[in-house]
Amino acid sequence: MKDLGWSYHKVRNNYMSYRFEIFDYLADEYRKLSGEIECDESYFGGKKKGPGGRGSRQKVKAFGMLERQGRIYTAIVENVSAETLMNEIVQHAEKGSVFYTNKFRSYNSLKFYGKHIAIDHGKEFGKGKRHINGL
Description:
The protein has helices spanning about 10-30, 80-90; strands at about 35-45, 60-65, 70-75, 100, 115-120. By secondary structure, it is an alpha/beta fold. The chain folds into two domains: about 1-30; about 35-120, 2-Layer Sandwich (Nucleotidyltransferase, domain 5). A five-stranded mixed β-sheet has the order 3-2-1-4-5, covered by helices on one side. The radius of gyration is 21 Å and the shape is elongated. The mean pLDDT is about 85.
């Protein structure tokens, strides 16, 4: 204070201004995803003997959501059950958003949380807005 020649009130006002800016930044950073959101699950892990894919217990399961033209959310999940994925979606996405997913059965109850567009990759891969390729 003395070095700058500022009064106590000027220093206090500057600190309060910084605090409000930090609050605004964090509020925006941690707001729920909204609008058009791509959702997908994935499995990571090295090669091993025996079954692979979703049946492999050794693989790490990840879930992600991409707000088109916006932010992304990812998490390591214990499993990819409907309950687990829906909990992640409810905690991190606004109700009423448009959700793009693959046809994995764990996403079936999404229709009760927003508009759900399930993409069949075997029939329509990357056609217009009907994709989850951004994630």
